[in-house]
């Protein structure tokens, strides 16, 4: 029998919150603890949203923490979430691409640039979604402004107001792995089935048809990377305001979901960068800690949630994010 924490007034509390009298008996309590220790994980569905190129603090008016240009993050999400005060991109790892690869594989593979998959594709099967696939755990990447008719290994799709591509392969780590793209095949059925336009997310949430692991990348305007429509911070914050509620209100989130909002890298130094966690099982209520975390911490956390091993490269060395949760995994 799966023992779940009770909820009172919508806030996750301990079993004592409104448990029947029998559960206060010592032997019964021992039985509950034993059952909980051997039950399946509480977190069943993960949404990982990756934003771009801002420090959490330490970069003046370009920082996210306390910034009036990011009211949704600071005054809506933070009071209900847990967050990290000392989450960093891996030391010295820049620019974007190696950080995205780190979230998927625990390493940047020595890459120092932002080239496309034909330049930097990897033959290894040792990465997260390969482990998930082998374990029968569903996954999907939602990428804003891809067509959904091909495997998006190159620059394609609409342009921003400045004439730049809105979709960037370097923000889509999966297309750098040969086992996902069938060796850079733009018509790979596996790739097309798993890497879908972001516009499909609301439909999938409404139909309760999302995967267990969902990786979400806004386009280059919406992820705070470019100043396409005024302040990049204000525009990215508005994008989160427009899209996070659909996840929070979904069956997948309410019945065992977790949302991780992280930025790929710092604009100044290596961080700290934002890491915000929303979940019925998170400590929430504005909780934060100052533990040193990196993208290896996120990868380790994902592997522990889904129970896939071995821990990939840097994930084996880093502290997981369970300190931000009341119940984990």
**Approximately how much beta-strand content do the residues carry?**
5-15%
Strand order of the largest sheet: 6-5-7-3-8-9-4-10
Helical amount: 25-40%
Counting copies of identical and different chains, the oligomeric state is single chain
Main beta sheet: strand number and arrangement?
Answer: 8 strands, mixed
Overall residue-averaged pLDDT value: 89
Please trace the helix and strand order, writing H or E for each element: EEHEHEHHHEHHEHEHHEEEH
SS summary, helix count: 11
The SS-based structural class is: alpha/beta
Name the CATH homologous superfamily of the largest domain: Alkaline Phosphatase, subunit A
Low-confidence stretches are 1-39
Question: What's the Cα radius of gyration?
Answer: 20 Å
Please describe what this structure looks like.
The protein is of the alpha/beta class. The chain folds into two domains: 1-39, no CATH class; 41-324, Alkaline Phosphatase, subunit A (3-Layer(aba) Sandwich). It has helices at residues 26-38, 71-80, 96-105, 117-120, 128-134, 178-181, 189-194, 201-206, 232-248, 251-254, 295-306, and strands at residues 7-8, 11-12, 45-51, 82-84, 139-143, 195-197, 213-217, 257-263, 275-278, 287-289. It has an eight-stranded mixed β-sheet, with helices on both faces. Helix 3 runs parallel beside helix 11 (295-306). The longest helix has 17 residues, at 232-248. Residues 1-39 have low confidence and may be disordered.
């Amino acid at each position: 029998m799966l023992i779940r924490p009770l909820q009172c007034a919508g806030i996750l509390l301990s079993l004592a919150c409104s448990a029947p009298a029998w559960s206060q008996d010592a032997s019964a309590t021992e039985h509950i603890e034993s059952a909980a220790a051997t039950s399946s994980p509480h977190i069943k569905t993960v949404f990982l949203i990756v934003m771009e190129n801002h420090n959490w603090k330490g970069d003046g008016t370009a920082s996210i923490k306390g910034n009036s240009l990011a009211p949704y993050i600071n005054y809506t999400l933070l009071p209900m979430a847990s967050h990290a005060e000392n989450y960093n991109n891996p030391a010295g790892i820049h620019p974007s691409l190696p950080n995205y690869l780190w979230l998927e594989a625990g390493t940047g593979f020595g890459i120092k640039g932002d080239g496309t998959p034909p330049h930097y594709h990897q033959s290894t099967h040792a990465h997260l979604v390969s482990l998930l696939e082998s374990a029968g755990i569903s996954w999907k990447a939602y990428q804003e402004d891809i067509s959904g008719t091909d495997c998006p290994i190159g620059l394609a799709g609409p342009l921003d107001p400045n004439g730049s591509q809105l979709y960037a392969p370097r923000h889509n780590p999966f297309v750098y792995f040969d086992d996902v793209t069938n060796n850079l095949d733009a018509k790979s059925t596996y790739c097309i089935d798993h890497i879908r336009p972001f516009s499909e997310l609301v439909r999938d949430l409404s139909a309760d048809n999302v995967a267990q692991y969902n990786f979400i990348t806004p386009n280059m305007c919406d992820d705070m990377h470019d100043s396409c429509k005024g302040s990049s911070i204000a525009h990215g914050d508005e994008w989160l305001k427009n899209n996070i509620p659909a996840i929070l209100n979904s069956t997948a989130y309410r019945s065992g979901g977790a949302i991780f909002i992280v930025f790929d890298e710092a604009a100044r130094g290596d961080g700290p960068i934002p890491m915000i966690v929303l979940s019925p099982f998170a400590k929430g209520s504005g909780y934060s800690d100052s533990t040193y975390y990196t993208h290896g911490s996120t990868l380790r956390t994902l592997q522990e949630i889904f129970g896939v091993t071995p821990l990939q490269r840097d994930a084996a060395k880093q502290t997981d994010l369970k300190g931000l949760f009341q119940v984990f995994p």
